[in-house]
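Issue: ligand-bound run for calcium ion - logging full I/O for the record.

Environment: standard queue, default settings, no custom constraints.

Inputs:
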Amino acid sequence: MKMQAGRNKLFYHIMTIVLLAGMILSSCSPAAPAATEAAKTSPTDAPKTEPTKPPEPTKAPETEAPAPTEEPPAASQPLYKMDPAVEMSVIKSADTFFGYYEGQTAGNNAVYDVWEETMGIRFVNKVETAMEGYQQQVKLAIASDDLPDMIAASSSEFEEMIQNDMLVDLKPYIDQYMDPAVKAKLMAFDGALFAPVTRGEAVYGLPATSNVEGSLRTLWIRKDWLEKVGREVPTTMEEVLDLAIAFTEEDPDGNGKKDTWGLPLDKDGPNSRLLNTFEIMANACGYYPARLIKGPDGKIVYGSLDPGLKTILKQFQDLYKIGGIDPEFASKDFAKVDESVGAGKIGLWMGVFWKPVDPGFATTYKEGVEWIAAPIPPCKSTGVYKPFVAFPANAYYGIRKDYAHPEALIVAVNNYLDSDALKKPDSFQKRMSALANTEGFKGIPLNNWAALQWQDPLYFDSSPLVRALNDPEFNPENPQYQVHMGAYDIISGRNNSDEWIINQFKDIFLKSCAVHESYPPENYVFSAYFGAPTLTMQKQGSILEDLEEKTFIDIVTGNKDVSSYDEFIKQYLQLGGEQILIEVNQ
Ligand SMILES: [Ca+2]
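Outputs:
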């Protein structure tokens, strides 16, 4: 370990630079919405109380947008408050998990008050439902043509509402009232988030944005093993593979036995969504197995049907052959593979940033193992890692066609994603922070009490923590730091935690932030299909999935030759794959 100190110092030096650069440049940067913490859950969550008042009858139908062609106002006024206040009816799923304190209900609570006082928007629960019943209520509202003023729904439900002409075109309101900085956030990824609700020039919804932190991946490497086999931190996927071979054949744990594996693999094969080593390696080489993505001609293609994947499969097969993959992987789930990490069998893991808290990983921290967190490197052939990333909009917010105040939705998002909110007196974000620190409201994801919420899609939760730890004038009362205070207490030593826990948290939050920063958002690859499962997907989906998984396992374990993948592609298309592609491209 000691002889590598110089190199590791350099590594950390680089990490520090990346981290600092990141803090200044982009996501791990000053735009800290104080209200971020709770915005983890979908806007559609939360459960049940009793129904309240019927919807406020609407005023004069003002369907025609305020003269969009006359004044396409580039320099229009961002609107932060409805004055006088307006009512906005919603379908509300009540928070039954955390519940409401005495005096607080789903239809009348302190969060609703903050919304009204700061934004001039008074929610009226047209329908209240348990979380499980939310979608049912949305479907009912659509089917009976009885929408609330504001509706949070999926992109496929939006498709239906748009077709039935039930929604306001928000484009003129966005142009006229949206804060340009807020607009820039929602327009991240070249406006991709709006694609599912855009028809020509018209925009029928605002994306309920979430951040992408949870779907970015880190290359975790045991530092002691890396040093034992005398390798550097990989900068190409080929080097990752070389390291995996070394971890198989060069006795990284030094016990004189060949008893370690190079890569973790679990039984869920290519269909283990977003968590699988196979997908990460494929992404690094420009392949997107198990995903519907945009092909070179703009049409949607299914990534598993690319014969180029044979090269990746061959690498797995070869590694398996030399004992570099657990021979029982096909019967082990994710947790079992994590156990292998804890048992000292695996020293290389590509996955989520919070991996260190998994029990197997945690065991290694207790034993004093040090992990390196590096960015997933690209294959030599691509030179750039373009990760598949879960679409950071889990729902859309739309406005009922006859509602008199569509601009209220813009007011809401302006306040929610306002980067300057902490400098403003009595801003929505400040008021929510204050509420979150009030006895009786602490520890509750208060944002779920409201009917809509946003996260800056390019904002990372770990950022405020990194800033706090680097701020010589750190003041825990500053609302901009009120995220992950528990982690801050641990990492800063205020919590008197064990050394291994401190290391674990440092890795999760500090190293991960630097890794996330190293992935330019323009390289993210999103799904190209936003609709509901098509007819053929519903009918043939599980058969196709099984076929794909079996093919994967058969090839990796050497039961079948890699060339049999061509046969798989043919079969997949015949069994419904071709029809699905027709359906998703309609
Ligand atoms: Ca060994």
